TrEMBL record:
Transmembrane segments: none annotated. The keyword Membrane does not apply. It comes from the Bacteria. It comes from Streptomyces catenulae. This is Cytochrome P450. Belongs to the cytochrome P450 family.
């Protein structure tokens, strides 16, 4: 790579449309200490091992002061305490188990599969809205409203409140990237994050209290009233968990659907295959997750002991960045990693993580994306990109196009 910091290059929006050449350079040295402090891990087997290593912490409170400042995590937020995503056992296990009870197996095993008809209905309604148009922004017209509508219904958040929480969610998602700029600019960014957290926490606390008094058949009601073997969540834990589910429940799926349509529109033969063979949807989405994942990297891991990784000793207390998208293109694990092969065998990608922090929303994201891409390819006639590359979001962690301008000839019924 050039003499510039590899991490700064990855975070540079100029590389957002195609970060994969940077990752390929990084993989030549599986573990690199960046000049800003963190250790970057870019190869598949090393990332996979670290995702299962109990000596690697997800708790931001274990970050050293330098790493915490770089990530904007110097202080705990009293409005939104750490979610289980940023905790270690046993706290992680208790909160994750409580959150999963109303979401899926073993307590509600058919929650996601029973939503198939409802998801298909939302998709049909959104695509019907394209009628009479020949230019679309697939993000604003489809890839964003679809998963937002789904997560609102699942949680019990009023869909009409979307304009309110959209701004807070965007701010918090952007906050996954390190703060940067002058000290004054960094403080301004932190203050913006604090306000967004406080506003979202106050909004969700009100909804949780409503559900506690008058429960409904939704996840907020379950969080507010359910008791697991280890008790129940505290009010702050309920709010923090609800915020995580609301944001993670749509931000990543927006990018996954958009990345999928971008991949298809760049390869008309592939688009025709999915249109003619809808049974390919499941393996197609798995290959999409490997090829162009919505979560590119995990920036917040800390070593609790000295760890040897591919011949490099990473000291206790170091900041680890796991480059999932790079590991997904590691040729030692995936032959021809830069080719999109829908029928790729043994496609055990890293895109939903692994180990105790495996994304429990993965079944919903998979089903949403399979239905979305199958129906879009079936019903859009003559679709083509109006701009390539499209404009991307600045976010390096949750990477995806901000807009996807598309020209279509019409709609099939």
């Amino acid at each position: 790579m050039t003499s510039a910091s590899p991490l700064r290059q990855i975070l540079d929006p100029a590389h957002r449309a195609d970060p994969y050449p940077l990752y390929a350079e990084l993989r030549k040295t599986p573990v690199v200490r960046d000049g800003t402090g963190p250790y970057l891990v870019s190869t598949y087997w090393e990332i996979q091992e670290l995702l299962h290593d109990p000596r690697v912490s997800s708790d931001a409170r274990n970050l050293n002061p330098e790493a915490a400042a770089f990530l904007g995590q110097e202080e705990e937020d009293p409005n939104l305490p750490p979610t289980f995503l940023r905790l270690d056992p046993p706290d992680h296990d208790r909160l994750r188990d409580l959150a999963m009870r109303p979401f899926g197996p073993p307590h509600t095993p058919r929650r996601i599969s029973d939503m198939r008809g409802e998801l298909a209905g939302i998709v049909t309604q959104l695509i019907d809205g394209f009628r009479g148009r020949d230019h679309l922004d697939l993000v604003d017209s489809f890839a964003y409203p679809f998963p937002v509508t789904v997560i609102c219904r699942l949680l019990g958040v009023p869909r009409e409140d979307e304009p309110r929480f959209h701004v807070w969610a965007d701010t918090l998602a952007a906050g996954l990237d390190p703060v940067h700029g002058t000290p004054e600019e960094r403080e301004a960014q932190r203050e913006t994050l604090r306000r967004a957290r406080a506003d979202l926490a106050a909004y969700l606390a009100g909804l949780v209290e409503e559900r506690r008094r008058s429960p409904r058949d939704d996840m907020l009601s379950a969080l507010a009233t359910d008791h697991g073997p280890d008790g129940r969540m505290s009010p702050l834990e309920m709010v923090s968990t609800a915020a995580l589910l609301l944001i993670a429940g749509h931000e990543t799926t927006v990018n996954l659907i958009t990345n999928g349509m971008l991949t298809l529109l760049r390869d008309p033969g592939l688009l025709r295959r999915l249109r003619d063979e809808p049974a390919l949807a499941a393996p197609f989405v798995e290959e999409l997750l490997r090829f162009d994942p919505p979560v590119q990297l995990l920036p917040q891991r800390t070593t609790l002991a000295d760890i040897d990784i591919a011949g490099t000793t990473v000291p206790k207390g170091a900041s680890l960045w796991l480059l999932l998208a790079s590991g997904n293109r590691d040729p030692r694990r995936f032959p021809e990693p830069d080719r999109f092969l829908p029928e790729r065998p043994d496609n055990q990608h890293l895109s939903f993580g692994s180990g105790i922090h495996t994304c429990f929303g993965a079944p919903l994201a998979r089903l949403e994306t399979q239905i979305a891409l199958t129906e879009l390819t079936r019903r859009l006639t003559g679709p083509r990109l109006a701009e390539d590359p499209p404009p991307y979001r600045r976010n390096a962690v949750l990477r995806g196009p901000r807009h996807l301008p598309v020209v279509i000839e019409g709609l099939a019924d």
